[in-house]
TrEMBL record:
Superkingdom field: Bacteria
GO biological process, one term: single-species biofilm formation
Record-level Gene Ontology MF annotations: transferase activity
Keyword hit for Cell inner membrane: no
The protein's name in its UniProt record: Glycosyltransferase family 2 protein
Species classification: Bacteria, Pseudomonadati, Pseudomonadota, Alphaproteobacteria, Rhodobacterales
Family annotation (InterPro entries): Galactosyl_T_C, Glyco_trans_2-like, Glycosyltransf_2, Nucleotide-diphossugar_trans
Length: 330
């Protein structure tokens, strides 16, 4: 009898009312050229009929299901890791799917002698919801790889998708896993904390996953807008400027990356016909805090400050009316 070598990999799949996609994603995990030792689907508070479907489908496949109350994708991922025993973790979003050699390519890239190993990640295909491919190279030319410079990691989208990564379990647990306040930006936050804790990373220049873009995903909704505001605040508090080393994080990273987006979201949220309108008060107050921190930073340039103030005036004009905005109402 041929013995199948242990891979040391646990695959965690968060599930939320995803019966339309899970059969495809789960099949891609089961069809790997290097099998995972554990597969755990975490049911993040799905509807009763979806939960029933999930349990029946996974029972047929011999796949474990973990049920929990709804807490978001980060919370579901954390629960999956807590339930797993393997030393390496791979995550898969329910609407994405692995290419055949995902596990093998990432596992083979793990160094044997690096006591500070944190994660290895690779490229991916971009596709529509049906899995029809738009392009076969998504992250390589959109950011620097591997990650070596904090400033570059902050000023640009990191383009590390957990579905195309393998993470050392000990490193993941050491930094506290995903921050569950985020339902968007939780990936950037995790890998930034791993980097700042001194864990190493490796980039493999091969696609291992198909990333399926759905218009109804959190990337285009209130959860992403809310998380963008919260992530901006978290970075501002965690990264004060270091003048002696010329690390002006607010001026060089946070304002260029988030300033326009945050104030654009705040402006749009004041429109009655916009999807953010029901959250206008929350978005306005958090954006106001971000704006105050940005313009109050002494290293922010005159041009940046003028641009931010101009955009904030438009937000206030939309919220209170032009006259009251001119009078300085905030």
């Amino acid at each position: 009898m041929t013995t199948v070598p242990a891979s040391g990999i646990a695959v965690i799949i968060p599930f939320y009312n995803g019966s339309a996609f899970l059969e495809r994603s789960l099949a891609s995990v089961l069809d790997q050229s290097l099998q995972a030792d554990e597969i755990i689907v975490v049911n993040d508070g799905s509807r009763p009929e979806e939960t029933e479907w999930l349990h029946k489908h996974c029972e047929k496949r011999g796949v474990a299901v973990l049920d929990k109350e709804n807490g978001g994708q980060g919370s579901a991922r954390n629960a999956g890791v807590a339930a797993a025993k393997s030393p390496y973790i791979c995550f898969l979003d329910q609407d994405d799917f692995f290419l055949e050699h995902h596990n093998r390519i990432l596992r083979d890239a793990v160094p044997a002698d690096d006591q500070r190993f944190g994660w290895v990640y690779a490229d991916l295909y971009q596709a529509d919801a049906a899995g029809q491919v738009y392009k076969t190279e998504t992250v390589k030319d959109r950011a620097h790889h591997p990650k070596k410079f904090l400033v570059k990691m902050l000023v640009e989208d990191m383009h590390i998708l957990p579905s195309a990564a393998l993470i050392d379990r000990a490193a993941f647990e050491a930094v506290g896993g995903f921050d569950t306040q985020f339902r968007g930006y939780e990936d950037d936050d995790l890998f930034t904390r791993l980097f700042r804790a001194g864990y190493t990373n490796i980039f493999v220049d091969r696609a291992v996953t198909v990333w399926c873009v759905n218009e109804g995903s959190t990337s285009f909704g209130i959860h992403m807008a809310r998380s963008r505001l919260r992530y901006c605040l978290k970075l501002t508090r965690a990264l004060p400027d270091v003048r002696d080393l010329n690390y002006m994080f607010m001026r060089d990273c946070i304002v260029p990356r988030f300033g326009k987006q945050i104030l654009r979201d705040a402006r749009r949220a004041q429109r009655p016909d916009h999807k953010f309108y029901d959250y206008r008060d929350e978005i306005y107050e958090t954006a106001k805090e971000c704006f105050s921190l940005m313009v109050g930073n002494k290293h922010v340039t005159w041009g940046q400050r003028r641009s931010l103030k101009g955009r904030w005036f438009i937000v206030r004009a939309r919220r209170f009316g032009l006259l009251q905005a001119l009078m300085g109402r905030t």
